[in-house]
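**Protein record**
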Amino acid sequence: MPTVTWARADPARRAAIVEAAEAEFGAHGFSQGSLNVIARRARVAKGSLFQYFADKRDLYSYIADIASQRVRSYMEDLIRELDPSRPFFEFLTDLLDGWVAYFAEHPRDRALHAAATLEVDTDARISVRSVIHRHYLEVLRPLVRDALTREDLRPDADTDALLSLLLMIFPHLALAPYMRGLDPILGLDEPTPEQPALAVRRLVAVLAAAFSPNLNMDIRGVR
């Protein structure tokens, strides 16, 4: 995370660095992302970046945190709008629809999410994914806990397994409709406009079959 010097920096300077870093890391990830390019685009000396961040990985994690907060803010507003007290799997279907729509409309956040998900440098991937997972779980864990309390899930449901599956499904649906090669099964490699919504319903139907107390539950007619 940033040093105290970052907090004292001019807001316009901070904004320029963040914008340049988001563009560079979104396009090239951590391994290929260039601090020289970031400094040049932000019109700052490269050395000043190290006054603000311990190293390149620290800057990368900070950018991931900013992007995650942006996505999280949108999704928390959507959660309130959708009413999370509804039956869990109906609510989850609408939430995932909104999730897919968000990344369709926000290519920079999609690029940053892809860069973090597909990062080849192990240490950088661990650092940045830990940031992203924290935001995911702080939102998803209470939803799953409340669903269990409402008996929308089986009493013996393995909620950790459900959360683990959601941690795979959310990033997949954020990226697969827009990045060829990630989904050869659900038709997301070359999707029609309707295909992401169909994929959402197929995935939620599987989760409902595994975790719902009502094994005959039908998710909007999709079996």
User: Anything to note?
Assistant: Residues 164 and 213 are 19 Å apart (CA to CA). The mean pLDDT is 91. Residues 57-211 form a domain with the Tetracycline Repressor; domain 2 fold (CATH 1.10.357).
